[in-house]
Design brief:
The protein has about 375 residues and is α+β, with helices and mostly antiparallel strands. The protein is built from eleven helices and 17 strands.
Length: about 375
């Protein structure tokens, strides 16, 4: 890595969070959570006497270097309500120590880390760990969007040649163990099992308050480089989009110009129906445009779009379903819900779809999303946006 290259400066960090917030498909946490994580990252950088976070291009990660996947688990509304940022470094370091024991190699140390998904919290927490510990972050993640379940990350796909092992996995609460919090090692082979276990634990209380940090899928750089084991360049992509939105005089036009972007509707959010259950925020967001009404159905993240003009959803995940307002405000479902709790005034919004990355536009992922769709009354196959 040449000196001065592959660095995110302070402005880049802000732009990454804004761009990742759009790509998170209405989930991934509130923008305020990501901005808080960036401010904590900047404070950690100042403490170390630097003003940037280094990053690895995926191809530059050492083949024999070890790195974990970092994610935040819980209901996005709880992250917004209680705050978040103390547990990511703890999860990373605990995972590293446990892997040293498992490998019988006390000198092994993680050389980097990968965000589990795209989103203000996932990218923000990984940047915080990188900035605090002085390690580069990988410019990529496991989805290229935010996802509701761990089995939807690329690293869980059994059809790749990477053979990445899920365990050991570390789940940590925001409250430290000394202060009554929890740090758990959850050993299992299936990502769906780990996801269900972790959500049950954090939903039951025990110091978690429905939010936590997870470090899992420890892999070598060689494994990460296997075909379709990673969605590449997601942080630089988020940075570039965040910068474009920040500088744009016409944010909707800026999004429309993105590759594969399709403007579904430009109208108003008129109604929101929501609940929290099992560690998930479940929503229906109603958008009215002219004489047409669209309903975005979300399980933390936007899963599908219904229209009264069609008898099948017009957009299905893993394709991205994203919102932005005409003034450039990027909305998550947490922020939409918070607005409608305060008042019932409709919100102007543009609703977009974007095609999923090829790494998750695959049979394994279509099956994972199909299981979610069934609970919303759709039993048909995946199809591209109508």
């Amino acid at each position: 890595m040449e000196q001065g290259q592959n660095r995110f400066d302070y402005q880049d960090l802000d732009d990454i969070i804004l761009g990742a917030h759009f790509y998170s498909c209405g989930g991934g946490g509130a923008l305020a959570n990501g901005q808080q994580l960036v401010e904590e990252t900047k404070a950690a950088l100042k403490k170390r006497g630097v003003d940037y976070v280094e990053f690895f291009r995926p191809e530059d990660v050492p083949d024999d270097g070890w790195l974990p996947v970092l994610g935040a688990m819980g209901a996005p509304q709880k992250f917004l309500e209680y705050g978040y940022g103390k547990s990511p470094v703890s999860a990373f370091l605990t995972h590293e120590r446990l892997l040293q024991i498992r490998l019988g190699n006390p000198s092994m140390s993680f050389c980097s880390m990968v965000p589990a998904e795209s989103g203000s919290i996932a990218h923000g927490m990984a940047l915080l760990v990188a900035g605090t510990l002085g390690l580069p972050i990988v410019d990529g993640d496991g989805a290229g969007r935010a996802i509701p379940c761990l089995q939807m990350v690329t690293f869980a796909n059994p059809d790749t040649s990477a053979n990445i092992q899920l365990s050991p996995s570390i789940l940590t609460s925001e409250t430290s163990v000394k202060a009554g919090g929890v740090s758990l090692n959850l050993d299992c082979n299936e990502a769906a099992t780990l996801d269900a276990l972790a959500r049950g634990i954090i939903s039951a209380g025990a110091g978690f308050e429905e939010r936590s940090s997870l470090s899992c899928f420890a892999m070598t750089g060689g494994q990460m480089k296997c075909p379709d084991a990673l969605v590449h360049n997601t942080l630089t992509k988020a940075r570039d989009l965040g910068r474009a939105i920040r500088l744009s005089s016409d944010p909707i036009k800026t999004i429309t110009a993105l590759p594969t972007a399709k403007l579904i509707s430009q109208g108003e959010i008129t109604r929101v129906k929501s609940s929290t259950r099992g560690g998930f925020d479940l929503l229906e967001v109603h958008i009215k445009s002219d004489q047409t009404e669209y309903v975005v159905v979300a399980k933390n993240e936007n899963m599908l779009i219904w229209s009264k003009q069609h008898d099948t959803p017009i957009v299905l995940s893993p394709d991205l379903i994203c919102y932005i307002q005409p003034d450039g405000t990027v909305l998550s479902n947490s922020e939409i819900e918070a607005n409608f709790q305060k008042n019932t005034t409709s919100m102007p919004v543009a609703l977009f779809s974007l095609c999923a990355d090829k790494a998750i536009d695959a049979p394994w992922f279509h099956q994972q999303y199909a299981e979610v769709f069934e609970s919303y009354g759709y039993y048909g196959p995946y199809h591209p946006p109508l």
